[in-house]
Amino acid sequence: MRTVSSIVRRPVVVAQKQAPFTPRKHASALHAYGLASFYQHGSRTANGEKFDPRELTAAHRTLPFGTRLKVTNLSTGRSVTVRVNDRGPFIAGRIVDVSHSAALSLGMTGRGLAKVKVDVVD
């Protein structure tokens, strides 16, 4: 008895995720556009300091700790300068998490999310 095996070849479609923002370099400054969220609970940050929701701090995935960012809420025009001391956000589409006091300054605590522009200050 002879068996014939056939291999069915199907094209494999790989969905590529697009970055939630497009970094643009302008004269030593990095500009990024995307969604920001805020957090108010935690015990320790990724750099080891105690989390304080009253400080103007932020979480960013890749920027070095201590980097200062100017975060501007695009719908209100309000901005605040924060210091990166944590890693995150870990939700797709978000580019920065800010502390509760920074979110209050930006006027984003009601909705919890805001479209923002992020500029590296220092």
**Average of the residue pLDDT scores:** 83
**Count of discrete domains:** 1
Radius of gyration: 20 Å
N-to-C series of helices and strands: EEEEEEHE
Helix percentage range: under 10%
Characterize the structure shown.
The protein has 122 residues and is mostly beta strands. The chain has one domain: RlpA-like domain (Barwin-like endoglucanases). It is 6% helix and 37% strand. It contains one helix and seven strands, in the order E-E-E-E-E-E-H-E. The chain has one helix at 100-106; strands at 24-26, 29-39, 57-59, 68-73, 79-86, 94-99, 113-120. It has a six-stranded mixed barrel with strand order 2-6-3-5-4-7. A hairpin with a 2-residue loop joins strand 1 (24-26) and strand 2. It is globular, with a radius of gyration of 20 Å.
